[in-house]
Fold this protein.
Amino acid sequence: MAGSATGGHLYPALAVAERIKRRRPDAEFLFIAARWESSSDILNESGYGVQTIDARGFDRSNIFKNFSVLIDLARSDRQIREIFAEFQPDFVFGTGGYVCGPVVKAARKRGIPTYLHEQNVIPGVANKLAEKYADTVFVAFEESKAYFKHPEKIVVTGNPVRKSFITAGAMHYRQQLLISPKDLAVMIFGGSQGADRLNEVVCDMLADLKDSDDLTVFFLTGRRLYEDVRRKMTDSGAIRNEKFHVIDYTETIHEYYSAADLVVGRSGAMTVSELAVLGKASILIPSPNVTNNHQYYNAKTLADHGGAIIMNESELTAASLTNEILRLKANKEQLNRMAEAAEKQGKPDAAGMIADVILKK
């Protein structure tokens, strides 16, 4: 398995590994990561073996810095050869990022079956370049086909999500989290690191809503911003509302997803796929700081079918977000329609579809 050591790249790989292990208990998996990413919590907690290589991404802002990158790539080729010689892989599965390309290319040279998985609507540079080396390219969204040169290689599977999302039960987690049946439960998050602008707006919004008695909010701030958010909410008095829960990070995010009537957050590929699998209405605020504005196009796959509302960050204020949440709170029929529309876009067996193709080779 080869890809960046971020959740967006690792969780699909882990889900596929889990599904193959279920069918082939004797299967062994090795994750190849960049040396600079070897401290990844997700990797370290996965239980699988990890080997690192010296690959790094190119610096597009200063080409002179790339001489050392080329040297590291040359080292990576030798390291990959050594890893392959020792591990003897039956296939290679790449999920994007600068580690993926050299590993998939090396596998193709050795006649090892190679597979790619693209999580976003608009493919990343690494996967577009590695496409020619892959036997099959799995994509999460039908719209991604237009961005690849070899349509005969494309298989639309969706994003493999963690088993906990597929087996989650809304009523169970609502009771576990002590959510009143009459409350609108809202989960708000901007990713594991948090999102500065979103957190700032939500702090102001919750200050305005601090006297609400039929609204439960789970605000996942990200570890980096947690103390700052706690301080702001304490100063505004919002923290005194016992139904407003401020959380820095959780390994059991599926519990909050499942319990929520409405999710507010960024539109990374895995978030969009998890919302669809769980059938959750959402207000999506695409990050403006990503390549090719890909989060907007991820969000659009739900919004175009009525499953989500898109709010651009440039238009995001405490008042606009408050108004949208209160409008949906007063219109349960629309919330239900959005949830149903999202669920229709879900592909809960994405990992199984990928495993089928790989194990048939």
User: Anything to note?
Assistant: The chain has two domains: 7-158+349-360, 165-344.
